[in-house]
Amino acid sequence: MDPFSLKDEVALVTASTRGIGRAIAHRFAEVGAAVVVNGRSAEAVETVVAEIRSAGGRAAGLAGDALSEDLPDAIIDLAFSAFGDLTILVNNAGTGRHGPLLTEISEEEFRSNFEYNVVSCWRFAASAAKRMKRGSIINVSSSTSRQRGMANMGAYAASKGAMDNLTRTMAIEFAPDIRVNGIAPGPIPTELFKHASGATSKEDLNAFLGFLKMPMNRFGKPEEIAYAAQFLCSPAAAWITGEVLTISGGQ
Ligand SMILES: NC(=O)c1ccc[n+]([C@@H]2O[C@H](COP(=O)([O-])OP(=O)(O)OC[C@H]3O[C@@H](n4cnc5c(N)ncnc54)[C@H](OP(=O)(O)O)[C@@H]3O)[C@@H](O)[C@H]2O)c1
Predict the structure, then answer these.
(1) Is the distance from the beta carbon of residue 83 to the nearest atom of ligand 1 less than 6 Å?
(2) Which of 71, 25, 69 has its CA nearest to residue 44?
(3) Pairwise CA distance, residues 135 & 87, whole Å
(4) Residues in CB range of 104: below 8 A, 6 or more apart
(5) For this structure, is 227 an active site residue?
(6) Does residue 196 have its Cβ closer than 6 Å to ligand 1?
(7) Which residues contact 116 (CB under 8 A, 6 or more apart)?
């Protein structure tokens, strides 16, 4: 048996049409999982489903807003109707930006961080845990939640910190059959990151890298998060639950 294989798994990856979620969806399919893809754009969902199928993998998809109260049950129903099971949930949908200070941020923006990174995460996990007989949940956090504080990212870091705490409680409540872990990525220049940091050009990104003082002196890649997600969902991690793994080049 390959301890890193996901061949017996059916995985739902929220927000998986770009960036980290897309890399996780592709990686999971490459190592044998059937994958349910999600994002708000139906066209983008169809594209990723087609990419996975044309590479020989199994995939289905449902477009929908991760903040919608109805989406978790609808998309879990799809996993069961398409593949007969659900054994992995990756809560990847999230939002946040390098924005206003805590004295300046609007209540709407402050609450939006918690709607994505806490409420939606909880809603998907609770719906999934009621129907999963076994398996694994991954909550995609952020390295900003692991630091002493993060100016200009207070609401985002606090909401991901709350997510990490939820991860630890879910690990206790859903044990022993469902393991729950978090992954806390450092900066990866996806669309969300570019929007969040305001760094869009190559020059902006290089300047931001200097500002961040990254020990490994480079940004991460979505694939580097996907490998960790694979490990945490695989038999190789059978005794790991309630942990949050920071993947941030030493930052
Ligand atoms: N990139 C980083 O540096 C970084 C670092 C730490 C943590 N993270 C976390 O990693 C996760 C993914 O971020 P990313 O950087 O990979 O983002 P990204 O490349 O911008 O991709 C975002 C994905 O989310 C989907 N999406 C956005 N809003 C959605 C909603 N309301 N409902 C459903 N899908 C939605 C997008 O598709 P549509 O637009 O079609 O909906 C897209 O597939 C987030 O939780 C983020 O906080 C990222």
Answers:
(1) no
(2) 25
(3) 5
(4) none
(5) no
(6) no
(7) 66, 67, 93, 94, 95, 96, 159
Rounded (10°) angle between helices 107-114 and 154-174: 30
- From the CA atom positions of the chain, what is the Rg in Å? 17
**Residue pair 225/23 in contact by the 8 Å Cβ criterion:** yes
How many whole angstroms from 50 Cα to the centroid of ligand 1? 20
Does any ligand 1 atom lie closer than 6 A to the CB of residue 40? yes
pLDDT tens sequence across 37-95: 999 999 999 999 999 999 999 999 999 999 999 999 999 999 999 999 999 999 999 99
Which residue lies with its CA nearest to atom 46 of ligand 1?
Answer: 94
The active-site residue, picked from 122, 156, 174, 219, is 156
Domains in the chain: ranges and CATH: 10-247 (3.40.50.720)
- Residues 106, 184, 87, 23: is their CA dihedral positive or negative? positive
Q: Would you say 175 and 237 are in contact if contact means Cβ atoms under 8 Å apart?
A: no
* pLDDT tens digit sequence for 158-197: 999 999 999 999 999 999 999 999 999 999 999 998 888 8
Decide: 125 and 180 in contact? Cβ < 8 Å: yes
DSSP label of 179: E
pLDDT of residue 209: 87
pTM tops 0.90, yes or no: yes
94 C-alpha to center of ligand 1: Å?
Answer: 6
Q: How far is the CA of 1 from the centre of ligand 1 (A)?
A: 33
